[in-house]
Each structure stands twice: as structure tokens, then as C-alpha cells.
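Propose amino acids for all 535 sites.
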């Protein structure tokens, strides 16, 4: 049976016992602590696994602005390698960095190292590597566990991006996100859009976003149950779920080492969580998988997934109407803007994925403004677990991925120069009239996205940003981005803060000229600009 279902059933039993008058706090505390932790002391960690495969790995601590201490691992390029753009690799829900090494010599992490990439592997708050804080004690403070993907994307990912760029003295990196690792990338860009320019290429392995069509019944039941019981669980002292060393994980780890039971028990667990794909994940890989997973997370994070399974939106955590008003200023949580992820993107997926459904991935791809390729594996059984652990990962995923890695690993000195193409959007034309009135700047944003697709094949040594302006005045997000960057550079160069305003005036004059041309092209022949004042 799936570990998540087992854990959900166990939690229901705890609640029932409480209603019967049993001391739930002591019961839960005993069963959700890590009594088997000593059994895991001898398990090989990232550095040891890398050493066994001939690589020297490093361990780094990263501190977020809200005080969480995250562990990162790095496999630096060997001495005979030519320097390339660094790559940040982010794991999925219930994983740690070891997940990218567990498939053996041809695991994703080792394949990147073989190609001389300076590879960095993150661990988000709450997993067994990042269970630390500057002031909070994860064993005593509920506040430590009051997070979901909202905080992971807003704080953890930006902190790791900045750390890698500072450590490597680079201005951009490539980002590979698996499942929740992709979801956190979308959250980062929506919440902190200035980070999009720091990502040279996004590689998404079944990146999660909206979760409405997830087909895994066991996962839906477990997450939905957690969401329903979140407040009682937290009141009972249950803040962390499925940490390493928890009895269920310990049992799976033990059973998966017994050859007679491994295929039946552990193979069945994989199938219940995702879907069946015989032969793709070998018994040896499976054994290593369950040594490091599940890696733990917060009750609140699981609850977010329970909420997302019931919604067609990609939204922040729903605290309920009253607390939403306090936190968000609205009775419903705000939606994330997936279009803020403007970096070139390549998305990989399989139709056999029951955790991140193809329809939801296609929904995300539709909202991304700069998708180079949406690669769907031809094997109809290729599932979610395969995208990180399959024995065939090199041939099926890495070979097509290398084309884009090679294309975007340029280290040209002028990779931070800006090239902008001005786009005047005639929003009085009949083709545009329905759009602009739904949101100011909507037509300009759409025109900018079309330009990004058109020029997606530009030399990767430059940053291309379209400058969209609507006839009646609103600018697109790209236009705002270009202006802010140019103004900042002028102020930095001259020390005069007024030059930003002067630049805006000059742009305004140019915009008015373009708008005049657009208006004259819209109005009937022989008509002057007078009618515009009647709008």
C-alpha cells in the first residue's frame, strides 16, 4: 500500500483516538518522531555517493532571508573541463538532492558532471538536509513548519540562485526543476520577476503548477485528507510528515533490500503513487530510491497539494476566508502568473505520468511565453518517477536535453547586453478591442510574447526584451522591465537620479509618435486625430 495512504490512515486513527479521550499529543509525538533515525546514520549521503562514482562533491549552507538554513551540494567540473554556465538542479516533493544520483552512473547528476557542467543540487526547507533555522527549532516550534511551496518559491529558490551566481562569479545560470522543483521556479518568477533575467534556460521535468487533473488516487486522498485535518494535526503537534527515519519510510527501506519482497512491495508502492512501467526502474535503483525518499515536508505543504487538486487555478495557499483577508487582503488566495517565467524553457513529460498530468503540463506550457520545445516521450508508459530514476534516462531525456544545454552554455562577455524591439499595439483595431478592457496592458503583454517567440532563436549571448505599448497608453511588462534596467544603468553611470525621469520623457515622445501613426492607420481615410478626444 502507498506510504501516503498509510500515513493518512494513521493520522485518521490518531484523531479517532483523541475523540475517544486518548491523549493524542503524546501518541502522535511518539509515532511521528524519528525513532528509526539511528538506522539511517550509516546511509550514504550525496558526497559519499558522488565519491563512489569518481566525483568530488562539496557541501554548502545557504541562509534564506527568513532564516532557514538550506544545504546545497555541488559537483564542480573537473580540471580538464572548459568552463560552462552553472546549472541549479531542484528536486521534487519528498525528495532530497540524492534523488539525482540514485539511478547510478547514468543518473541525471552524473550525466551533467560528465558533460563538465558546474552542477549545484538544492534541498528545500523541511527535507532532511534543510531541517535547520537560525532561531527556530524544528522539533519544538510550529512556526518552522508553517510553509508551503509559496515560501519555497519565494525564498528558497532565489537564495540558492544568488548563492550559485555569487560563488561562480556568473550573471546567469541554467535551472533544471523536477516536479515541485519546477513549480517553485514558477512561484519564484511570479513573486520575484527580477529573477527571470538570472535564468538563462529552464529545463522542466514534469514541472508542476496547476494540479487539477492528477490521476494518482492515493496521492489525491492523502493530500486532501491532510488539508482537511491540517488545523487539528497542527494543534496536536503533528507538523512534519514522512520524514526520513519515520517508521513507514524505515519499513520501505528495509523491505526494498530483500530481493524476494522488493518487486512486490516496493514496486507496488511505486505503482500506487504513480503508474506501472515494468523494467524502467531496476531493483537496485528502487532500493536506493527508498533509502532517501520520502525525505519529509510540512503538513501545510501537503495541504497545499490537497487544495490544488480541487482547483483549476494555480494559486497561493488558501487559509480560509477570514485569514485570507488578513494575509492577502482578499477572501480568496491570489493566483500565480506563470507568464512571468520569461526565460527560454524546454519541458519534458510522459503520458504515463499520474502525478503531474499531461493536461496540466500543457496548461502551463500554454501560459509560458518562451517555450522552445514541449517534449513528450514517445513511450506511453513513461511516468513521473521515470523522469528522475529511469535506467533509460540518458537516451530518452538527456540526449534531446543536450541540444539545448549546448546551445545555452555560452559564456560570452556581452551576455548581459540588452537588445529591445519596440512594438506599438493598435488597441483600437477590431482584433484587439475585446482584450485591453479586461486588463490594462493585456494587449501589450500579448504582443511582447509574440515577439519573444519570433526571436527565440536569437544568439544566446544577448538578452532580447520586446517593448510593447498600447495605443491608449499602457505599457507591457517587457517595456517596464527595459525601462527600469536602462534607468538603473544610467543612474549608476552618471550618479544623477533625474536621468531616469528624462529617459521616461524621451520614451514618451517616441511612444506618442508611434501611437499617432497607429491611430491614423485605424481611422477612415481623410480623418484627423480630432475624433480620438471623443473616446
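Proposal:
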Amino acid at each position: 500500500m502507498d506510504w501516503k495512504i498509510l500515513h493518512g490512515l494513521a493520522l485518521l486513527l490518531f484523531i479517532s483516538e483523541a475523540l475517544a479521550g486518548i491523549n493524542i499529543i503524546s501518541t502522535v509525538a511518539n509515532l511521528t518522531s524519528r525513532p528509526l533515525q539511528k538506522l539511517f546514520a550509516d546511509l550514504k549521503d550525496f558526497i559519499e555517493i558522488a565519491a563512489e562514482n569518481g566525483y568530488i562533491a562539496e557541501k554548502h549552507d545557504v541562509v534564506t532571508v527568513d532564516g532557514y538554513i538550506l544545504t546545497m551540494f555541488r559537483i564542480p567540473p573537473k580540471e580538464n573541463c572548459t568552463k560552462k554556465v552553472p546549472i541549479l538542479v531542484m528536486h521534487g516533493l519528498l525528495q532530497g538532492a540524492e534523488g539525482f544520483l540514485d539511478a547510478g552512473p547514468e543518473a541525471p547528476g552524473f550525466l551533467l558532471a560528465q558533460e563538465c557542467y558546474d552542477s549545484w543540487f538544492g534541498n528545500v526547507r523541511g527535507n532532511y538536509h534543510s531541517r535547520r533555522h537560525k532561531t527556530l527549532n524544528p522539533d519544538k516550534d510550529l512556526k518552522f513548519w508553517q510553509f508551503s511551496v509559496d515560501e519555497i518559491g519565494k525564498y528558497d529558490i532565489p537564495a540558492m540562485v544568488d548563492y550559485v551566481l555569487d560563488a561562480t562569479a556568473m550573471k546567469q545560470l541554467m535551472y533544471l526543476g523536477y516536479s515541485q522543483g519546477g513549480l517553485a521556479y514558477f512561484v519564484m518568477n511570479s513573486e520575484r520577476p527580477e529573477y527571470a533575467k538570472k535564468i538563462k534556460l529552464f529545463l522542466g521535468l514534469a514541472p508542476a503548477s496547476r494540479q487539477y487533473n492528477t490521476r494518482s488516487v492515493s496521492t489525491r486522498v492523502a493530500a486532501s485528507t491532510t488539508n482537511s485535518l491540517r488545523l487539528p494535526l497542527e494543534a496536536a503537534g503533528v507538523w512534519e510528515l514522512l520524514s526520513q527515519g519515520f517508521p513507514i519510510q524505515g519499513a520501505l527501506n528495509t523491505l526494498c533490500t530483500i530481493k524476494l519482497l522488493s518487486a512486490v512491495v516496493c514496486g507496488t508502492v511505486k505503482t500506487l503513487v504513480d503508474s506501472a512501467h515494468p523494467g524502467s526502474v531496476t531493483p537496485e535503483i528502487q532500493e536506493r530510491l527508498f533509502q532517501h525518499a520520502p525525505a519529509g515536508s510540512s503538513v501545510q505543504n501537503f495541504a497545499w497539494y490537497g487544495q490544488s487538486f480541487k482547483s483549476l487555478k494555480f494559486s497561493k495557499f488558501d487559509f480560509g476566508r477570514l485569514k485570507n483577508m488578513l494575509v492577502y487582503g482578499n477572501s480568496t488566495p491570489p493566483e500565480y502568473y506563470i507568464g512571468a517565467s520569461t526565460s527560454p524553457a524546454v519541458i519534458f513529460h510522459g503520458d504515463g505520468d499520474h502525478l503531474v498530468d499531461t493536461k496540466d503540463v500543457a496548461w502551463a506550457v500554454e501560459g509560458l511565453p518562451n517555450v522552445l520545445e514541449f517534449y513528450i516521450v514517445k513511450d506511453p508508459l513513461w511516468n513521473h518517477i521515470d523522469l528522475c530514476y529511469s535506467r533509460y534516462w540518458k537516451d530518452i531525456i538527456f540526449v534531446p536535453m543536450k541540444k539545448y544545454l549546448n546551445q545555452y552554455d555560452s559564456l560570452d562577455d556581452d551576455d548581459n547586453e540588452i537588445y529591445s524591439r519596440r512594438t506599438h499595439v493598435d488597441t483600437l483595431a477590431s482584433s484587439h478591442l475585446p482584450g485591453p478592457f479586461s486588463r490594462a496592458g493585456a494587449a501589450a503583454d500579448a504582443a511582447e510574447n509574440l515577439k519573444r517567440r519570433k526571436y527565440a532563436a536569437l544568439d544566446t549571448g544577448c538578452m532580447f526584451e520586446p517593448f510593447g505599448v498600447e495605443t491608449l497608453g499602457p505599457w507591457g511588462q517587457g517595456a517596464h522591465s527595459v525601462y527600469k534596467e536602462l534607468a538603473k544603468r544610467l543612474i549608476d553611470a552618471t550618479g544623477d537620479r533625474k536621468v531616469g525621469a528624462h529617459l521616461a520623457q524621451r520614451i514618451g515622445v517616441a511612444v506618442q509618435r508611434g501611437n499617432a501613426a497607429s491611430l491614423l492607420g485605424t481611422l477612415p481615410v481623410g480623418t484627423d486625430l480630432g475624433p480620438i478626444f471623443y473616446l
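The chain has a mean pLDDT of 83. The chain is about 40% helix and 15% strand.
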